[in-house]
Amino acid sequence: MALQDKTLVxxxxxxxxxxxxxxxxxxxxxxxxxxxxxxxACRASRRRxxxxxxxxxxxxxxxxxxxxxSVPFVPRxxxxxxxxxxxxxxxxxxxxxxxxVEDQGTxxxxxxVEDQGTxxxxxxxx
Length: 126
Fold this sequence. Notes:
By secondary structure, the chain is an alpha+beta fold. The protein contains 4 helices and 4 strands, in the order ββααββαα.
């Protein structure tokens, strides 16, 4: 049986929306048995509202500069908490300490390999 587009009515805004055959196939693949009850716009709005309500900001004092800042988690007492600017400084410093360097260039750029010329310049070719 081939899947066909269905026209459904959104339970939030009352507008009609199309539940495409491709979406129906996705629902079947994921094991979702019920058709969607909200249009894509209302689903996105509802998802955004849920995500915003779950993110609690905590006001803390930066361990490096002493500025007051907000973080999206509850800090533990045994770990320092930084503002955005100090966090970037600490993170980039940690990368250098671990030997992580983004682009070191070629060996020639670093002065590791010197230009030795051609075989003729070295006198190895007769």
